[in-house]
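User: quick one, fold this
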Amino acid sequence: MCRSFAAFAALVAALPCVLGTQKGAIKLDSWTYEKFLSLPGQKVLVKFDKAYAYGDTEDAFKSLCEKVSKHSSFFVAEVPIAEYGDKENDDLRERYSLKKDDYPVYKLVTTGPNFDEKAVNYTGDKTARDLVRFLRTNGIRITGVGGLKEYDELAEKFITKTSEADRKAVLDAAQTKAGGEEDTDVKNKAEMYVKTMKKIVEKGLDYVNTETERVAKVLGGKMSDDKKKQMEVKLDVLSSFEGVKVHEEL
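Assistant:
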């Protein structure tokens, strides 16, 4: 893993032309795409979009790049596709039968030989919040838009513990920490983490999936802006308990 990561880093450093249009993204083209993604052992979120993209979806991509910038073993890349002139990278559009009305299109790639076979296509809303949730549920450990980093770490510890006593110890630590929070917004979010842990103890890990589905359904209906914000944060918190390798379910 270390050797493959070093090869990845060396390739990025050696090719200044791979700097993306967004800070933090690696620009790939017809010549570098296969070469870059064939190096084994990394996770890369690839965005296919029109050249010189702009608007809300590009703002979301910019926010995502900033969000994942400190992740040491995860990369964001983009493939700008030109519609006119030399039609730069149009062969990659044809390779995946992409339609411009669907831009931006995202794929989560596990790099290595035959990387296309393991790629996960993203089909959700193209907001920074939903993209982060997608990454989290696929094992990329970054804090959700409405989440709290320290409580994310407690959530991961809680899920990966293999005994009831160990999980209770993490729950107690989270509850104590939440009780000491002075900021109202932080305290409310922290209590969501604690409540989720308690529900998992009571109902098992299936609670995360069923509650995620329920909240997503609620968000599809009409509600006040405050209620919508609360439900979105709850989804962010729930995603902290997904995508974590569990050695033994209690």
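User: anything notable?
Assistant: Confidence is low (pLDDT under 50) at residues 14-20, 246-250.
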